[in-house]
Design a protein that fits this description.
Blueprint (H helix, E strand, L loop, with lengths): L5 H8 L8 H11 L9 E5 L5 H8 L3 E6 L2 H12 L6 E4 L2 H7 L5 E7 L7 H14 E12 L10 E4 L2 E3 L12 E2 L3 H7 L4 E12 L4 E11 L3
Parallel strand pairs: 1-2, 1-4, 2-3, 4-5
Antiparallel strand pairs: 5-10, 6-7, 7-8, 9-10
């Protein structure tokens, strides 16, 4: 089992985003803007939370499945979709279990925005392997991961090299387990895919006192 119960508490106590990251919007525009009919494209989001990305993808006309271990997050995601009469297949469950149950070659794209990083490296490797398995030939993935050196790296209880819980500072404080990725780790984890790209994105917060780097990973399943 991979779901950290802290996320149910988090979603119970705070709101969690209403809009998708620009990286996902750009990715969709690049690869799927000309798709007709759009509902023929099946997206799956791993760790969909309160539904910001599911909402965006459904509004764009795609067929969407979202998975999260938090019942509160899924309930909020459903309510968010209902406000605009949108629909998606939203499932509550442990990600490793639900992904393992999905059929081979049943989706066109897997989206991971900060979910796979919330696991030990071995579990993340399993999740990516399932992501590749459930994609159709030519299917794509997009993942956004915190990188080594970001605020909070090394500032918690170390579970394994690069993986911490009880992070003491920054955006990830109180957010359970997180792994800070090197580019080499990202490329190794996403080894089941071809045409893997890893872009480094940096930003600062709180009057330039907090520095963050993310790895934007994309890949394609061989036809």
């Amino acid at each position: 089992m991979s779901f950290d119960p802290v996320w149910e508490q988090i979603h119970t106590q705070r709101a969690w985003g209403r809009y998708p990251p620009v990286e996902l919007v750009r990715f969709v525009a690049t690869h799927y803007s000309g798709t007709v009919p759009r509902n023929s494209v099946r997206f799956l989001e791993a760790g969909c939370g309160a539904g910001a990305n599911v909402w965006y993808l459904a509004r764009e006309g795609f067929t969407v499945t979202g998975i999260d271990g938090s019942e509160t997050a899924i309930r909020r995601a459903r309510a968010y979709l209902e406000t605009e009469r949108l629909a998606a297949d939203l499932r509550v469950g442990d990600l490793t279990v639900v992904l393992a149950e999905l059929s081979d070659a049943s989706f066109d794209c897997v989206v991971d925005i900060g979910c796979y990083q919330c696991h030990r490296l071995g579990t993340a490797r399993t999740l990516v392997a399932h992501s590749a398995r459930i994609l159709r030939p030519g299917g794509r993935c997009i993942s956004l991961l915190h990188a080594r050196g970001s605020e909070g790296d090394g500032r918690g209880q170390e579970l394994e090299p690069g993986t911490y819980t009880h992070i003491e500072v920054g955006q990830l404080k109180g957010l359970g387990i997180n792994h800070f990725y090197t580019e080499e780790e990202a490329r190794e984890i996403f080894g089941p895919f071809s045409d893997v790209t890893v872009d480094v994105l940096t930003h600062t917060r709180r009057d330039q006192t907090e520095h963050y780097a993310h790895l934007l990973v994309t890949g394609r399943k061989d036809a």
